[in-house]
Each structure stands twice: as structure tokens, then as C-alpha cells.
Amino acid sequence: MSINGWGEFAASGGLISYGPSLTDTNRELGIYAGKILKGAKPADLPVQQPTKFPLIINLKTAEELVLTVPQSLLTRADEVIE
């Protein structure tokens, strides 16, 4: 069981995640690195930060741990894994 900041962890069995997508972050990192490899100066590139922070709840894990997730939390979730 874990509560993590990367959505992929909830998808692979964690209980709850709230944070940016690791896949999206790595994709943006690749784009950023590509700009540098094409000759852009790192000091001239803007600082980038994630803009989406989805809340993902894994109900299968909650059931295995005999936990009840409040309905108010389920309503706020961007994704519920059943």
C-alpha cells in the first residue's frame, strides 16, 4: 500500500496518488532535452512545471486493505480504479 505523488503508482497497485503523471513529465523532459540537443541554450529556455495534478484512487487496493474511501474523496477523484 502506498500514497504517492505519481499517478502510475496507483495504477500498479498503490492506494492513492495525487501528482503529475510520470509519463507526461518524462515526455516533456524529452522535448526539453531535444531543444538543447538542437542548439538551444538551457539558460534561454523557460522553467517548466506540471500543470495537471490528477487524484487517482485504487478501490481494488482499498478493498484488499479493508479500507472505506469516503464518497467525498471519490467524487473529487479524476480517476477511480475498480
Main attributes?
four-stranded mixed β-sheet, 82 residues, 15% strand, 4 helices, alpha/beta
Give an overview in words.
It is a single chain. This protein has 82 residues and is an alpha/beta fold. Helix content is 40%, strand content 15%. It has 4 helices and 4 strands; from the N terminus they run βαβαβααβ. The chain has helices at residues 7-11, 22-37, 59-64, 71-76; strands spanning 3-4, 16-18, 55-58, 79-81. The chain has a 4-stranded mixed β-sheet with strand order 1-2-3-4. Helix 1 links the parallel strand 1 and strand 2. The two termini are 16 Å apart.
Give me the strand/helix succession: EHEHEHHE
* Mean of residue pLDDT values: 92
Helix coverage percent of residues? 40-55%
Q: Report the structural category.
A: alpha/beta
Strand count, sense and barrel status of the largest sheet are: 4 strands, mixed
How many DSSP helices? 4
Q: Give the C-alpha Rg.
A: 17 Å
Q: What does the secondary structure layout of this molecule look like, with pairings?
A:
Elements: E1 3-4, H1 7-11, E2 16-18, H2 22-37, E3 55-58, H3 59-64, H4 71-76, E4 79-81
Parallel strand pairs: 1-2, 3-4
Antiparallel strand pairs: 2-3
